[in-house]
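Could you help me review a protein record that somebody else here produced? My question to you is simply how this chain folds and whether the tokens agree. Thanks in advance; the entry in question is below:
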Amino acid sequence: MAAPVDLELKKAFTELQAKVMDTQQKVKLADLQIEQLTKTKKHAHLTDTEVMMLVDETRMYEGVGRMFILQPKGVIHNQLLEKQRIAEEKIKELEVWLSYREENVFSFLIFEMKDTLSNEKNGLQN
């Protein structure tokens, strides 16, 4: 009689372990995305700093596909600011998602594990 209970318990722990591994992979991916977005934001900021030091009459070109389009300094500046803003928003979204994962998912997994153990314990007592 103990064998079916052990198999069920082993199956439950295997499922929980798979959920934990999946969550850990998603967290690592989010960390990598945050790191990449931070680099993108910093690059846009440094480029914008250099662009703003140039005189207004400087000819500036925007790369579009395989060609370059002449753009005023203000347009380039606005594009770089927008790039920084979008990167910052995505970073904040990922950080909120990570904090949710840390707070809720792992506590849910612990609760589920305790629930499984208590059910198995009650099943053995009956």
About this structure: The chain has two helices and two strands.
